[in-house]
Amino acid sequence: MWQQQGATACHCPCPLPDVISGDFDSIQPDLLKLYSAEGVTIVPTPDQDETDFTKAVRVAAGLIRERQTSVNHILVVAGSNNNRFDHVLAIVATLYKAYQITSTPVVVVWGGSLFWVLGAGQHRIQVPAELCRNPSSSWCGLVPVGQAATATTTGLKWNLDHQTLAFGQLVSTSNTYQLPPGGGDVTVTTSGPLLWTMGWMAEPGLFKRKYSELQNGF
After folding, report:
1. Is residue 216 part of a domain?
2. From the first residue on, what is the mean pLDDT of each consecutive set of 10 residues in the chain (218 residues)?
3. How many structural domains does the chain have?
4. Which end of the chain is more exposed for a tag (fewer CB within 10 A), N or C?
């Protein structure tokens, strides 16, 4: 959630955030004061039982409800140069919690990957042609989170047909698309939460254009 005016105190032409939240254990106090002076709401969340990401989702969900704002998706750009696997697991854990915290989908961009949790029900994911044609981005997967789930899919090379996904049983990774050259729809019907993960093109211009096509599938 961002304000429209420039960040004059920080001499930055980019828009100011509406809210900054976290435990603030690594931010410079003077920088926090600058943002506060510009009208940015500062929300301390000192609870150490949850990550800053999880707490930020809670804050954002609360603001969406409080302001009765229409938000299609919460898009999170994570640090792709972070080689901490425990951080990756923490992000997935947050997505699983977010699915229970808010009905607004929370989508993570991590370098060349895009992933979010599909709740129980039917889903349609529009896959752009560029992703189908590019071998480095034409991969996808469905991973159970929190519990086993029974799923049926269309549009994949290795579709699921009322099969149960669970650790210790079947996990659908390293899959790809079986779609027309111009792209098309992948459908997923699931009895429980599944992490949908897919390759993505990291070029900013292409991301902005193609994300607008893909988002109908959330």
Report:
1. no
2. 41 74 86 90 87 90 87 77 83 92 89 92 93 88 96 98 97 95 94 95 53 51
3. 2
4. N
DSSP state string for the chain:
-EEEEEEGGGTEEEEEESEEEE--SSS-HHHHHHHHHTT-EEEE---TTS-HHHHHHHHHHHHHHHHT---S-EEEEE-TT---HHHHHHHHHHHHHHHHH-SS-EEEEETTEEEEEEPSEEEEEEEEHHHHH-TTT-EEEEEE-SS-EEEEEESBSS--SSEEE-TTSB-EEEEEB---TTEEEEEEEESS-EEEEEE----HHHHHHHHHHHGGG-
Please provide residue 145's backbone torsions phi and psi, each rounded to the nearest 5 degrees.
-130, 130
- Show the domain range for 72: 1-111
Q: Is residue 117 domain-shared with residue 107, that is, in the same domain?
A: no
Cross-strand pairs, 122:
189
Distance CA 19, CA 14 (A): 15
Q: Do the beta carbons of residue 157 and residue 135 sit within 8 Å?
A: no
Same domain, 88 and 130: no
Say if residue 116 is in the same domain as residue 152.
yes
Residues 65 and 150 in one domain: no
Q: Angle, nearest 10°, between helix axes 52-67 and 85-101?
A: 20
> pTM to 2 decimals?
0.79
What local confidence, expressed as pLDDT, does residue 103 receive? 86
Q: Are residues 117 and 66 in the same domain?
A: no
The predicted structure's pLDDT at residue 11 = 53
